[in-house]
Amino acid sequence: RRLTLFGLRPRHTAQVITVVSGMLITLVTLAAVLLVSADARTALFRFRELQAQTARLEAEIDQAEARLRQLKGGDIAYLTNQEVLRGLVDARLPLVRVQAAVDMLRLRAVDLALENGIGVDGQTGSVLILFPPRLTWDRVAELVRTHPGETVVRIVANQNTLRGEPLEVYIQLLDNVLAFRRGTVLLRGTVDGRARREEIGRQVLELVERSAEPARRRVLAPPFARITDPPLVQAAIDDVRRLVAEIDRLGRPVGVEVVVSRDTFTVGPVLVTVRLRG
What we know:
By secondary structure, the chain is an alpha+beta fold. It has helices spanning 10-36, 38-73, 95-115, 137-144, 197-210, 212-215, 237-250; strands spanning 76-78, 83-90, 128-130, 150-157, 161-162, 167-175, 178-180, 185-192, 233-235, 253-260, 264-265, 270-276.
């Protein structure tokens, strides 16, 4: 008589016995390998760690994708690395006065952020959340005091932030030092005086715009811009008009210089004049 289990047909009983036997053999083999081989135990534990790490990474990817969908469909109040506010603080003042100046800057930044649609954190009641997390505004004041003189305190958005969300920010501290002396030549170029006056004007203004590139290594971007933007370079419109008229009168290609017209410091802007090369 053929063997049966649990009232199953002999054929089904044979299948169950085969499956159970295979599982037992696998478990016994794995247990024996783990008992005998330290490398095998390490590999198994490492595999579990990799599984956990993979699960964490997948969760982070899901979170990032959800955030991206929010940003695409939402109204962004601040971009990553966009300046919220800047101020000048004299680091030589007593700490209590530096703290007061930093706190005043913080309050102004809060007002501006609220005007731009930033919300309040539901847990802390804060509008601005300092990054890294352990940083405090008193610590910012202490760091200002380590600088030698007038210091640019720059509050910058740490990530793209939607309206209604609190704003995570980080702080930049920079010495407000002399970047360019008056008379420094930022850029030289050529303008074709044979062109129409409108084209001459365009070429001159293009030189002014290009002069921002050599200036960006020493001068900050304009207020409220992204900190990676070039600095603001301003030329007096009357100077530009006079130069365009003179180039048009000469009617030939001429060399042009973009020259700093006033001592310029880190905080900017860069004021320039344009002139014919001597």
